[in-house]
Amino acid sequence: MSALRAIQRWMWIGIAALALYTGWLIVRHRGWSFGWHGWRTPASAIDVPEGLGGPVKIVQFYAREGVVTEGGSTVICYGVLNAKTVRIDPAVADVWPSMNHCIDVHPARETRYTLTAESADGSRVSESFTVQVEANAELLPKITSFHVIDCKKDYLGQPLFKLRFTDQNAEEVSVDPAVIPTLHRAPYGEFYATPGTYTLSVKGKYGHVARQVLKTDAATCR
User: Total domain count for the chain?
Assistant: First the structure.
């Protein structure tokens, strides 16, 4: 009898193991999983509606900052209902119909952003706002000096002035009339010029320009 009971016990163990294995196969095939919080249904099995019904709507559209510094960025967030397509002008990447979606933008100058949402039947709604861009005072170009440092006469007895300039944050330096070629990132320079009026221009990283005018008079050269 003891041998028979042992055989029966092993038979029941085998049946239980087979049942557990079959159940595991079913669960794996359906894509279910079990964690600390219980059974979870796969995302593909959840029916997510495209909208709540009714006309297309813009429920939110704003920028994190209304004013940014040159070279900086801000975040635009929007939310729409019952929209088939959305777009932001000027064009912004990674935009799609969503109740809550945010993207980074880097406006180079004052920019008016417009969100347009369109429904499946072709109806549209739009909203707009403007992001201001202010100069970074620390990066503005500056002319720190522009003056005559010497004057002498050439072999014909004509006065020839030596001019010197210094600047800060210069990407380009030019003189009008163009007695020297355009210089790039030159914090200091000297050149000779005949009597006349000269305008020194210093252009910064974001296109800002500082100018200073200097007049040279032949009567002052002795």
Answer: 3
- For residues 171 and 197, membership in a common domain is answered with yes
Residue 52 lies in a domain: no
Residue 124 within any structural domain of the chain = yes
Strands in the chain per DSSP E: 33-35, 38-40, 57-63, 67-69, 74-81, 85-89, 101-105, 111-118, 124-134, 142-153, 159-168, 172-176, 183-184, 188-193, 196-203, 209-216
**For residue 25, pLDDT beyond 50:** no
Residue 50 in any domain: the answer is no
8 A C-beta contact, residue 210 and residue 143:
yes
Q: Which tokens in the block code for residue 98?
A: 């969503």
Bridge partners of residue 215, in order along the sequence: 197
199: pLDDT strictly greater than 60: yes
DSSP per residue over 106-129, as a string? --SS-EEEEEEEE-TTS-EEEEEE
pLDDT, tens digit (0-9, with 9 covering 90-100), for 155-181 = 888 899 999 999 999 999 999 999 999
Q: How far apart are CA 27 and CA 34, in angstroms?
A: 9
Q: Which of 104, 134, 164 is the last residue of a domain?
A: 134
Q: Containing domain of residue 36, as a range?
A: 2-44
Write out the two tokens for 131.
Answer: 């992001």
At 101 the three-state DSSP class reads strand
**Structure tokens, 102:** 């945010």
What band does 85 get if pLDDT is binned at 50, 70 and 90?
A: very high
